[in-house]
Amino acid sequence: MRMFTSTKDATRRGPSSGRPDAPRRKSDILAGILYFSSAAGLALYYQFWIGQLYPVWTDNLYIFALLLGAVLLAVASFRAFAARKFGDLVGFAGAVLAWRFFVLVEFSQYRHPAFFNAWILFNGTDDHAIGHAGLKVFAIVALLAATIHSLLRMTPEGWRFRDRIWPTLAVSILGVAIWYSTAVTPYRIPVNDLHDLSPTVIVLHVVKRGLRFHETSLKVYRSGDFILADDDRRLFVYGFRRYGSRGYLADDGMKILKNIKDSQDQLRGSSFSLYGPPRGWTADRWYVLFNPWTSRPHNIALSLTPGEIPALLEAAKTVPKQTRGSDAQRDVCLGFCYDPTF
User: Fold this and answer.
1) What is the pTM of this model?
2) How many domains is the chain built from?
3) Buried-most residue among 6, 210, 236, 309 (CB within 10 A)?
4) Is residue 209 exposed (0-12), middle (13-18) or buried (19+ Cβ within 10 Å)?
C-alpha cells in the first residue's frame, strides 16, 4: 500500500485525489475558459444566424458538425475545469469538426465575399448584418484560440510551452491578422451595394493631402445616365459621408464618352495600367475602369491623364441633376484599402 502520493501523480488526477500544483491548475482553468468561450460562440452563432437560415440543422452535414463541435468543446471545458484526462483531446476533436463548417463558409468562398466574408460585412449599411458579422468573428477567434491551446496541452510533459497561455495568444493574434488582411485586401463590399447594371466607364479622381482624401467618382452607363459621388475622408476613420447625384449626359458629354471608350486600348497598354492606391503623403491620381466587374482599373498619373477624362467628369458636374442625396459609408480598413471605384 502506497503511503505517499507524488506531486506528479496528484497533478494528473482530479481534485478529489490530490491537489494539483498551482501552475497546472491555472492552466486547466484557462483551458476551460477557452473551450467554454468557443462552445458559447459557436452556439450563439448558430442561434442568431445559421439557425434562422437553416432551422432544420439535420439536413446539413456541415451544420451538424458545427453543433457537434460546440457540444464537444463544452464537454472539454468541464473536463478541463475538473482536471480530468482527455479534455484537451475532446476539445481538439470538437474544434476540428467546427472548422470544417467555417472553412466552407468563410475561407473558401472569397469569390462571393458578401455572403461568406465576415470582415467586409462591417462595410455594409445593415446594422443587423454587422452584428451577426461581429458574432461570427468572435466565434472564429475563440475557436482558433481553443484549437491552438488544445494542441499545446497535448504536447509531451515537460515541454516549456505546454501550460503557457502567451503562445496561444501570440499565434492567435497572428492568425487573425492574416485572416483580416486577406479578407479585406483587395477592398470588397457587400453584394447588396453592387450595381445591378454594370457601368460602361468608371472614373475616379483622388486628391490626397497627408491623412486626408478628397475623392470624386463618376459611373457612366451605356444610355448616358450617370452617378456622380464625392466624399472627404481621413485615414484611421471608420465612417464618413458620401454625397451623390444622378443625371444624364448632354450631347457633348456623350461625345467625350465615345472618345474615351475608343481610346481604352491605349490606356490598357500604358505603363500606368496597374491599380494601386496613392501611398505618398500627397498625391493626385486618376483611375479609369472599363467593364468594371471583369477588368482591373487603370491607374494614371495626373501629368499623363488624357484630357477627355477630366472633361467627362466636368461635363457630369455641369449638367442639371435629377436627384441628389447623401449616405453613410463605412470602411473596415480605416482608409487603407478603401476603393471608391466600386
Assistant:
1) 0.71
2) 2
3) 309
4) exposed
Q: Assess whether 200 and 296 both reside in one domain.
A: yes
Q: Is residue 2 part of a domain?
A: no
DSSP state of 192: G
Cβ atoms of 220 and 195 closer than 8 Å: no
DSSP class of residue 172? Answer: H
| Structural domain contains residue 1 | no
Within a domain: 189: no
- DSSP per position, 200-262: SEEEEEEEEETTEEEEEEEEE-TTSEEEEEEEEEETT-SEEEEEEEEEE--HHHHHHHHHHHH
Q: Which residues pair with 240 in a beta bridge?
A: 329
Alpha carbon of residue 74 to chain centroid:
27
Residue 149 belongs to what domain range?
7-184
Asked if residue 82 and residue 15 are part of one domain, the reply reads yes
Q: What is the pLDDT along the chain (342 residues), one digit of tens a residue?
A: 443 334 444 444 444 444 456 667 777 888 889 999 999 999 998 887 765 555 555 557 888 888 899 999 999 999 888 878 888 899 999 999 999 888 877 776 555 444 557 888 888 777 887 888 899 899 999 999 999 999 988 888 777 777 788 889 999 999 999 989 888 876 655 544 344 567 788 888 889 999 999 999 898 888 889 999 999 999 999 889 999 999 999 888 888 888 877 766 665 544 444 456 677 889 888 877 776 554 454 455 444 667 888 899 999 999 998 899 998 888 888 888 766 655
Q: Is residue 341 part of a domain?
A: no
Residue 210, Ramachandran bin (φ over 0: left; ψ between -120 and 50: alpha; else beta): left
- Asked if residue 330 lies in contact with residue 239, where contact means CB atoms within 8 angstroms, the answer is yes
CA separation (Å) from 17 to 9, 11, 84?
Answer: 9, 9, 11
β-pair type (321-330, 201-209): unpaired
